[in-house]
Specification:
Chain A: It comes from Novosphingobium indicum. Chain A: This is S-adenosyl-l-methionine--l-methionine S-methyltransferase. The complex is a heterodimer of chains A (about 300) and B (about 70). With about 300 residues, chain A is α/β, with parallel strands linked by helices. Chain A has helices at about 30-40, 60-70, 80-95, 115-120, 140-150, 165, 185-195, 215-220, 245-250, 280-285; strands at about 50-55, 75-80, 100-110, 125-130, 200-210, 225-235, 265, 275, 295-305. In chain A, the strands form two sheets. Chain A has a seven-stranded mixed β-sheet, with helices on both faces. In chain A, helix 1 runs parallel beside helix 2 (about 60-70) and helix 5 (about 140-150) crosses helix 9. Chain A is globular. Chain A starts with about 30 loop residues before the first helix and ends with a strand. Chain B is of the alpha/beta class and about 70 residues long. Chain B has one domain. In chain B, helix 1 packs parallel to helix 2 (about 45-50). Chain B is globular and about 30 Å long. The chains are: A alpha/beta (about 300), B alpha/beta (about 70). The interface between A and B is medium-sized, with 25 and 23 residues. Bound molecules: S-adenosylmethionine (SAM).
């Protein structure tokens, strides 16, 4: 952990360098999740490759990959259509000499669900994404499950921040995907689409490993990708993000005989030494909402396995 | 009893499969049993046991190895 040597960050390489424009509706480009993601992107051999980012945010990764990783082209899209224009502006200010290599798909695009997005995905070598892995606290079916586990929603968790869709996904909408049961429905939906439209493309995805890396790897293998962890870092749990989702997963296993086989991975310290289950973590924040909690963020590269 | 709709749990190991079944049972209409397709890696007996009384509400089927 903490091996920052050699890692360049577009926002901190030089204090005089232009800063990205980061309005409230966009995921904060200085967030440690994005730092971890960029460590993984650096190690992903993107030189000369065509890269597509699903969920482009501020465009910080587009600028990073074109500037520091030597990608030959960068496509991207987002569910929030405002982010495309923002990413274009950021690219022009952060890395003007690469601006023409950035070819985003305009409009609101969920995953790669438009013809233009699929056409670009078909030309892509590596698809990158950091998509939400927590069910929306306001999702009705998810709320019913949470209530059955007697896990209550912390005060204020139902209020939507400006960048709500950067943190949560509509859980019921992705319930056809089996790994939705552990919060990976949106990510599994993306893997299935890539497998169909770009069967040879690698994927590089960023995860909060609060459910453990093993389940994330299981999802990759179940969808035809061999997983490999290429970067990892312990980060502070985002204070605004509701963790009752994870407590509800643990609660549902009580009395099943499987409760010992699954406990979420939270930590009480930034070194990741003192492990806490989601229940223990929830109890601490219920007592004091400012209690710092930590968890691992990791970047997983998936390489398509030959079809069975 | 009529068996409705198959819940796809293929690819899931025991823990995420149990979670998926329990999530799907919330608000499930008890006049019909829920068909559940389990992956090869799942232990059907342990899963049935883990569901307790709710096991009568589901019909577990395993994807067969060829
Ligand atoms: C956690 S932020 C990551 C932003 C950026 N990729 C980064 O690493 O800094 C997640 C992004 O995914 C977008 N997003 C959420 N759901 C999406 C979906 N169904 N399809 C495409 N993008 C989505 C959000 O709008 C947000 O920009």
């Amino acid at each position: 952990m903490g091996d920052d040597a050699g890692t360049e960050m577009i926002s901190d390489t030089d204090s005089n360098a232009p800063k990205p424009e980061a309005p409230e509706y966009a995921f904060d480009p200085r967030d440690p999740w994005t730092q971890t993601f960029q460590k993984g992107l650096e190690r992903a051999n993107l030189q000369g490759k065509a890269v597509y980012e699903v969920g482009i945010g501020t465009g910080i990764n587009a600028a990073f990959v074109l500037r520091f990783c030597g990608a030959a082209a960068f496509y991207g899209s987002d569910l929030d259509p405002r982010l495309i224009a923002l990413a274009e502006r950021n690219l022009i200010s952060l890395s003007p000499e690469h601006a023409e290599l950035f070819q985003p798909v305009k409009g609101a695009v969920s995953l790669i669900d438009t013809d233009e997005a699929r056409e670009k995905i078909a030309k892509t070598d590596v698809v990158i994404a950091c998509l939400p892995q927590v069910g929306d606290p306001n999702d009705e079916r998810f709320a019913a499950f949470r209530e059955e586990q007697s896990v209550s929603l912390p005060a204020g968790a139902e209020e939507e921040a400006h960048d709500h869709i950067a943190h949560y996904y509509p859980w019921t909408m992705f319930d056809e995907y089996p790994f939705n049961s552990v919060g990976l429905g949106l990510n599994e939906a993306l893997l299935r689409r890539i497998r169909e439209h770009a069967p040879r493309a690698q994927v590089v995805m960023n995860f909060g490993a609060r459910i453990g890396t093993e389940l994330i790897f299981e999802m990759f293998r179940a969808n035809g990708y061999e997983p490999e962890k290429i970067a990892t870092q312990i980060v502070r749990q985002d204070i605004g993000t509701d963790i009752s989702f994870f407590a509800a997963l643990e609660g549902a296993l009580q009395g099943t005989g499987f409760e010992k086989e699954f406990k979420c991975f939270f930590f009480a310290d930034p070194e990741g030494k003192t492990r806490l289950s989601a229940h223990e973590a929830q109890r601490l924040v219920d007592k004091d909402p400012d209690t710092p909690l930590y968890h691992e963020v990791c970047v997983v590269r998936g390489t398509p396995m030959p079809a069975a | 009893m009529h068996v409705a709709q198959t819940l796809d749990c293929s690819g899931l190991s025991n823990v995420p499969a149990i979670l998926r079944i329990k999530q799907a049972l919330v608000g499930w209409n008890d006049d019909v049993r829920m068909g559940v397709l389990l992956g090869e890696g799942c232990d059907v007996e342990r899963i049935t046991g883990s569901l307790g009384a709710a096991s009568s509400r589901v019909q577990l089927v395993t994807a067969t190895k060829q």
